[in-house]
Amino acid sequence: MEALTHRSWCADHEGVSSNERLEFLGDAVLALAVTDHIYAAYPEMAEGQLAPLRAEVVRAEALADLAVELRVGEALRLGRGEDGSCGREKLSILSDAMEAVIGAVYLDASWEVLVDLVGEWLADRIAIAAQGPGVRDFKTRLQEHCARNKQDAPEYRLTGKGPDHEKRFFAVVHVDGKERGRGEGRSKKQAEQAAAASALRTLTTATTG
Fold this sequence. Notes:
mainly alpha, about 10% strand
């Protein structure tokens, strides 16, 4: 419960601790857990490659995306003002809460449990980031491709399917009025990234062909 308690809640409720101490702990523990994972998974990587890989996975945007997938925002205890200003969707609040949850897991369970969870939650992101700088951000690469080839900017159309606790999102991307790629994921961003990757393959093949 403490991991899900934002400081704005404490302002309205005396004697309640915020998640800031757990966030501090979780930040350090997560870095070590990710380091442990990538050190074992990528023995061929030098230190100069491992450091930016870890930084990519533990950055605030990545943690906020994970928090959205795990529906952490819905469980947060926020003060009235913060809750009324869309605090459950703010990147900083979500990423901080995700670190606090990780800190709580470390204290309540064990190091082994935490490492297993980090592997389950972040393995896909780590694998994508390990492919090299810039590989993860397919949306940016697609936009740059279109600009270089004097094409219209990509347009994304999103739909969702399934109950809230296991919802899947589907994205279709159009370039110059034509469908160029489709993708799906557990979040809107994942679906758009997958669609952008598909479109890049399609457009690159057409260009080289």
